[in-house]
Amino acid sequence: KYINIYYSIRLCMLDLTVVAYSWKPPPTPATSDGKCLPFWILYGRYCYYVYNGQKGFSWPDSRHYCQTVKADLASLHSRAEVEFIRNLNYTKYHNVWIGLTRDLGWGWTDGTALGFLNWSPGEPNTAFHPGEVGEESCVEMYPDGRWNDNNCLVRGYKLRDLSLLTKSTTPVDVVSY
């Protein structure tokens, strides 16, 4: 007998201004010292957070969650960044909402340039699914790192869960040890 439990993983990213580089991760930070908070993972100038809950989240709900922690859905600008995210524990098996959305055209929620693209073959396709409200105007990242446009209100499917990746709106300095 199986019990269906839906998990949603949110991956938040906090923007940091680089003052110095360090090959070792910093110790557990306080909120205002320029280091990642507990349970956040430092990569480059950003801190990432994986939220693993038992409830599925839509793209707007995910973005709202990130904004409540002074972050936003993440923009991805390189293959290295995608590979780092792919190797985070929960993103190996779950889809992740990212900050790419289509209003008049595709763009990042943080306003950064759309230079790096990593669409899955045949995407974006802006499909409309009968019985659903709206088109595929939000983007999820598959466990393989490829992107798919999806309905923003989707909260997760039976065999896959939707997560979130986010980036801060207030830069702070990184302290090196």
From TrEMBL:
Domain C-type lectin, residue spans: 43-152
Signal peptide: none
InterPro entries: C-type_lectin-like, C-type_lectin-like/link_sf, C-type_lectin/snaclec_domain, CTDL_fold
SUPFAM superfamilies: C-type lectin-like
CDD domains cross-referenced by the UniProt entry: CLECT
Entry protein name: C-type lectin domain-containing protein
